[in-house]
Write a structure and sequence with these properties.
The chain is mainly alpha-helical. It contains 4 helices and 2 strands. 60% of the residues lie in helices and 9% in strands.
């Protein structure tokens, strides 16, 4: 598996904005708020990943008489929650675009975007 390249399915905020514009929804307040929320979620996920990459997977706490207890880093539990939330937000954005938008131009953007998810 050394030569295999993992397909990156992360969707960028600018891609979502471009898709919204393609479907004539670039000024829809509901869609704008959803895309902004997705951007915040992506920043939080990036910060969590950066912290986990720069620190140990275990943290220690001292409670009684200097005894040290080891625990899993709290962010390990938080990352899947935030990733799931971002995925649901992105799915909601795609659903909004699909239901409210009308495509102008050629026919290859939205179908390719949805089929890649």
């Amino acid at each position: 598996m050394a030569g295999r390249k993992k397909k990156n399915k992360e969707v960028g905020v600018e891609e979502l904005r471009a898709l919204a514009k393609t479907y004539g929804l670039e000024e829809n307040p509901l869609l704008i708020s959803q895309i902004e929320m997705y951007a915040v979620q992506q920043r939080v996920i990036s910060m969590i990943r950066e912290e986990l990459n720069n620190s140990d997977a275990a943290v220690s706490k001292e409670y009684v008489k200097g005894r040290e207890n080891l625990y899993a880093h709290p962010l390990i539990k938080e990352l899947p929650k935030h990733a799931d939330s971002a995925t649901r937000t992105a799915d909601g954005i795609v659903k909004l675009i699909k239901e409210l938008g009308t495509k102008g131009g050629d026919d290859d953007g939205f179908e390719a975007f949805v089929s890649s998810r």
